[in-house]
Write a structure and sequence with these properties.
The chain is of the alpha/beta class and about 290 residues long. It has 10 helices and 7 strands. Helix 8 crosses helix 9. The chain starts with a helix and ends in a 7-residue tail after the last helix. The mean pLDDT is about 85.
Amino acid sequence: MSDDQAQLALLERLASALERLAPPAPTAADFTAADAFVWQASPPAFIPVPQVNRQPLALLKGIELAADQLLENTRRFASGLPANNALLWGARGMGKSSLVKASHAEVNRGLVTSKAKFALKLIEIHREDIDSLPVCLGFMRASPHRFIVFCDDLSFDHDDTSYKSLKAVLEGGIEGRPENVLFYATSNRRHLMPRDMMENERSTAINPSEAVEEKVSLSDRFGLWLGFHNGTQDQFFDMVRSYAAHHGLKIADADLIAEAREWSMTRGARSGRVAWQFIQDLAGRLGVKLAVK
């Protein structure tokens, strides 16, 4: 074998090795496979969700005002009208993420009724994958569908700088948010940052107010703020009654309320999550399977 042939064979082996090491080219996303997907950052992919874990909108009690506002915002967006990114913040277990999923289902039901060509898609992105949001949006930008990108329990801790990339994507980047994409997030924190983090920034910065503004400005990117607060006892009982009726649980109202009161006292809370956990326990004791959501 001549020197030229040997060098050519070596180059071919090197090229083959590089091809094996290189990641495969991302395939186009098939958004017709489902109405909801989970974004996978590496390798980039949208995982279809055949059945979303959610409750009907009518069963979410004690949050009617927030439900009306989010539903109207979502309907406008699905119709091609201007709408705002939404931050649902406040007490844990009061139906923030449930409302996002229920609103998506309710709007999609209306789109089917009106025979709209493209359904509204719900894309869940995990908190740890926020850095990959620009890549995620790149797949959606050229799609004819409209998307709600949903991040549950969004918050940022000390030394976490990924919030800066989220700020640029929501409002302010050179590309900005695609017109067919809306961002919904839930958080226990109104400003997405822990209070001690902001206080530390204030105490150590040369200009304390500017340091705090840098942290707080992320929540300003959300045009719609919806607050969720701890439920009253009457609201808790309404939740329990609504779930029991929907799932056909045969129990006297007095017994239902007495057991629900005891359950909430042992949990130290009267939230929608606690009400649902009580219903699951009650259904199990009654030997009743819960209706498909």
